[in-house]
Amino acid sequence: MALGPFMEARTEQSVRASASLGRAASESLSDYLDHAVQELSASVARTGLAFVALGSYGRRELCRHSDIDIMLLASREFSDGVHAVLYPLWDTGVKVGHSVRTVEQAVESGRANVETLTSLLDARLVSGDAELFERFIQARRKLVSRERKHMAADLRQRYAALCAAEPWQLGEPDLKNGRGALRSLQSARWIEQADAIADGEDLAPLSPALSKAYDTLLRARNALHALTDRPNDRLLGAYLGEVATILGSDRQRCMREVLEAMRVVDAEAMRVLGPQESSASSFFGFLRGRAKPTDADEDMTELERLRALLRTAEAGGLDPLPRTPWLDRLLPEWDVLRSLPHIAPFHLHPVDVHAWRTVVEARRAIVEDLEQTATPLAASELPDHDELLLCALLHDIGKGHEGDHSTVGAVIAERFAARAGLGAEAQQRLSDVVEHHLVLPTVATRRDIADERVVREVAEMAGDARTLRLLYLVAVADARASGPDVWSAWKAQLMRTLYLRALNYLEAEGDPENALERLTLESVEALAGRIEHGAVEQHLRVLPASYLLSTSPEEIGDHIELIERASGGTAVDHDKVGDLDRLTIVTADRPGILSLVAGTLAVHNVAVLGGSAFTRDDGIAIEVMYVADGLAHGIDERRWARVAEAVPQALAGTFPIDERLAETRSAYASMMQPAPIATTVAVDNVGSDLYSIVEVTAADRLGLLYAITHALHSLSLDIHVAKVDTIGREVVDAFYVRRENGRRVEAPDEIERLRQRVTEAVRALDADFAG
Fold first, then answer.
1. d(Cα 102, Cα 105) in Å, to the nearest integer?
2. How many angstroms separate the CA atoms of 694 and 713, rounded?
3. Residue 75 maps to a domain
4. Residue 446 and residue 524 in one domain
5. How does DSSP classify residue 82?
6. Biggest alpha carbon distance in the chain?
7. Are 452 and 519 in contact (CB under 8 A)?
8. Most C-beta atoms within 10 A of its C-beta, which of 118, 184, 718, 739?
C-alpha cells in the first residue's frame, strides 16, 4: 500500500521514547507523504497535470494530525487524478483539503482570498508536470507583486486582533494558533516570503534563535499529537507531564522551553507584523515600547526607572520585563520567574506574566471600584502608589525557589529594598506585604470573619492601617490577575468585609466594646422609622456579638421582619447582593439545618458559596447562604419558587432529598465527572477558641456540601459557620463545628473517626453516581 509508510510514521508509538520530534520529524513525515503521492499519481502522470503541496505540507511542516492541503494543478479537467490520489487519502480518515485549478484559476483564487494566497506562497511540486508548475510559479510572482501590500495589511490586522484577544501569555498555550505560536511565525514569514518572491530572491533562513524556537514548538506539537492521538494543539497542564516524558524532559523545563520559544516568535511577529514607522498604531507602538525598557535617561536611578515602568504598566509583549543591564543589577531575582510555569492549575499565566498583570490590576484598583471592593478609597489613603506597585510586582518573587514562596519572597523583597536604597520602614513594609499577601484571601474564604479573634489576629498581623491597605489592594489585584477561577463577586465581598473589620479594629485601637456600642447605635438609627428601636435592641441582645459585627443594619432589619413573618415556623427569603444571590432562612433551631438545606439546594442545582448561622437565645436560627447557579445560567424565578417551597418541607422531614438528588445527578451525568483530586480532611483546634475547624479539600461535584454536612451531622456535630472556597475544579470547605454539648473535637480517636466518616461520605457520593 502506497500510504502504508506514511500512516505508520504518523502513528508510530516508539516516538514516545524519542526526543527528536521537531523539524526533522515533520520533514520526514512530509517526505513519506511525498513518496505516497508520487506512487499513487504514477498511473495518471501526464503533461498538463501536477500535484502540488500547499500550506504546512508545502512547507514540509506536517505534524501527526495536521490537515493535508493538496492542489491538483491542471491544464484541463482530470477527474482520474482525484480518484488516484485523493480517494486513497480519504479512505485513511486523514483530513484532506484539496482543490483542482488551472494556473489562471489558482491566481484568481489567490487574488480573491488572502488565506488562499498565503497557501500558494508555500506551493511545492510533489509530482507531475514540472513545466506547468513553473508556469504557475511565474504567474504567482506577478500575483504576489500586485497583492503583497494588501496581504500584509490583512495579516497585520489579524495579528493585532490576536494580540487584543490574547494580551497576556497563557500558561496553557495553543501551539498552533495562539499568540507566538507556529501560525504567528508563519504569518511573519509570509510577508518576508512575498517580498522575496516579488523581488525574485530566495527567502532568508531563520535566525538561530527563531530556528530553535520553531523546532521547540514543532517538537511539543508532535508530542502532544502523539499523546492524544488527535489534532489537539493546546498544551494543557493535564497533558504536560506525559508530553515532557515523550520529549525526555520534565514538566517545568518542558513548559518553560515552550513559553520562551513563543516569546521569541512573538517578538519576531511584532517586528514584522507591526505597522511601518510611518503609520504606527498606538496599539503596536505601545507593544514595541513595552518590549524594550531602556537606559535612555542617565539621570534616573535604577529604582526610578523601574517605578516609571510600573506607573505605566499595561499588557504588551509576551515577555513583560525583557532583560536589560539595569534591571539585572536592580532585580536579578526576576530571572528565576521568567517563563516559569505555575504549579497551581487555576493560574492563567506564567509567574512573571502573572506578577506583571498584578501590577496592572493594582493600577486599575486605584481608580476603578469593581465588585464593590472600595479599592479606590483604600488607595486614596496611601501616601503614594509607587509602594503599592512594587508590592504587586514582587508579591510572588519567591516562586521557583525551595520552600514556601511567601516566606522566601519576603527575604528576597528585603534584599531588593536594601539594594534599591529604600528606608528601613519601607523595607519592612515591602517584606511584610510579600510574606503575608495570601492572608486576607485565605482567611476570608476559609475562616469565620465574624469571629473577633480572627479579625484581631489579621489586624495584629498587619500591624498598622497602611500595611493593611497594601495587603488588601495587592490581594485584590493578585486574585484578579489569577483568573476567573480565583476571583468572584462572592470572594470580593468576603475580602472587603474582613479588610474593613480589621481596619475598624486598628482604628478603634483594639477596643471591641467601643465597636459594639457604635454598631448598635448605628443599627438603631439606620432602622428608625422602619422598626421600633426597642425591637432592634432586643434582637441584638439575644444574639452573639459576632452577628452585630458581621451584619449590616439593613440586613438586621430584614431578619427581624423575616422572623415576624415566620411566626414560629420557617420563612425563606431570596435577594441579590450586587451580583450575588443570597438565601436567608429563619426557622426553629435544630441539628442538621445546613445539611438539609444544602441537600435541597443541590437537588435544584443551586451551589452554596458560603454562609453563616446565628441562633438567638430564644431558639430562633438565622441561616444566611450565598449561592450560585450550578449550571452557570442564572437562577430564574420559577426555580427560586421551587426552592422556597422545598426548603420548609426538607426542614420538616417531608422532602425526599436523597431520592431527588440521585435523579438530579443522573440527569446531569455528563457534567458530573469529578477531577482527579484526592479528598483530604484536616481538623484545626488552634484557629478558634470555641470551635474545631474542619477543612475538607476535594474535587468539586454536585452534592458535595450535602455529603460532608450530612456526615458531620451523623457525628452529632453542630455547624456554626460553613465556608466554601472553589478554585477551578477544587473545593476547600471549612466548617466551624462543636458537639451538641458544646465540646470541640479534640481526642485523636474522635478526629480520626471524623476524617473517615467525611472521606467515606464523599467516596459514597461517587459510588452512588457510578452505580
1. 5
2. 13
3. yes
4. no
5. I
6. 103
7. no
8. 184
Burial of 438 from C-beta contacts in 10 A (0-12 / 13-18 / 19+): middle
pLDDT band at 288 (very low <50, low <70, confident <90, very high): very low
Strand partners, 696: 681, 733
H helix or E strand, kind and range, residue 309 = helix 302-311
Residue 735 CA to residue 748 CA, distance in Å, equals 18
Q: Looking at the domain assignment, is residue 279 inside a domain?
A: no
Q: Which of 289, 281, 313 is nearest to 159 (CA)?
A: 281
Residue for grid cell 514548538: 217
Contacts of 396 (CB under 8 A, 6+ apart): 337, 351, 354, 355, 358, 405, 409
Residue in the block written with cell 505534524:
63
**Domains of the chain: total:** 4
CB neighbours of 352 closer than 8 A, spacing ≥ 6? 319, 320, 321, 334, 337, 338, 339, 340
Q: Mean pLDDT, to the nearest integer, of 593-600? A: 93
Q: What CA dihedral angle connects 184, 185, 190 and 193, to 10 degrees?
A: 170
Identify whether residues 455 and 534 lie together within a single domain: no
Which domain, by its residues, includes 382? 295-507
pLDDT by residue (tens digit) across 434-484? 999 999 999 998 898 888 899 999 999 999 999 999 999 999 999 999 988
Co-location of 251 and 315 in the same domain: no
Q: Which of 273, 303, 322 is the last residue of a domain?
A: 273
Contacts of 448 (CB under 8 A, 6+ apart): 454, 546, 612, 688, 691, 720, 721, 723, 736
In angstroms, rounded to a whole number, what is the distance separating the alpha carbons of residues 455 and 736? 16
Residue 156 CB-density burial (10 A; 0-12 exposed, 13-18 middle, 19+ buried): buried
Instruction: Output b/e per residue, 29-55; b: 16+ Cβ within 10 A.
Output: bbebbbebbbbbbeebeeeebbbbbbb
Location of C-alpha cell 508530553: 243
**CATH code, domain with 303:** 1.10.3210
What is the DSSP secondary structure assignment for residue 551, as one 8-state letter?
A: S
Query: What is the full DSSP assignment across 248-297?
Result: T--HHHHHHHHHHHHHHHHHHHHHHHSPPGGG--HHHHHHHHHH------
Whether residues 242 and 384 share a domain: the answer is no
CB atoms within 10 A of CB 134: 12
Considering the domain architecture, whether residues 236 and 87 belong to the same structural domain is answered as yes
| Within a domain: 262 | yes
Half-sphere exposure of residue 213: CA atoms within 13 angstroms, side-chain side: 24
Task: Assess if residue 201 is contained within a domain.
Answer: yes
Question: End of a domain among 215, 238, 273?
Answer: 273
Question: Is the separation of the CB atoms in 695 and 446 below 8 Å?
Answer: yes
Residue that has been written with the C-alpha cell 536589560 in this structure: 324
d(CA 260, CA 180): 10
Q: With bands split at pLDDT 50, 70 and 90, how would you rate the model's confidence at 512?
A: low
Cell numbers linked to 317: 509583549
CA 670, 671, 672, 675 torsion-angle sign: positive
Cα dihedral value 519, 522, 527, 532, nearest 10: 80
pLDDT, one tens digit per residue, over 612-662 is 888 999 999 999 988 888 887 889 999 999 999 999 999 999 999 999 998
198 and 344 assigned to the same domain: no
Give tens-digit pLDDT for 611-625: 788 899 999 999 998
CA atoms within 13 A on the CB side of 739: 11
Is 265 in the same domain as 299?
no
Both 327 and 443 in one domain: the answer is yes
CATH assignment at residue 8 = 1.20.120.330
Could you give the CA distance from residue 399 to residue 416 in angstroms, rounded to a whole number?
15
Count of all residues that appear for the chain in the document: 771
C-alpha to C-alpha distance for 85 and 102, rounded to whole angstroms: 18
Residue of 497, 485, 556 lying closest to 527 (CA atoms): 556
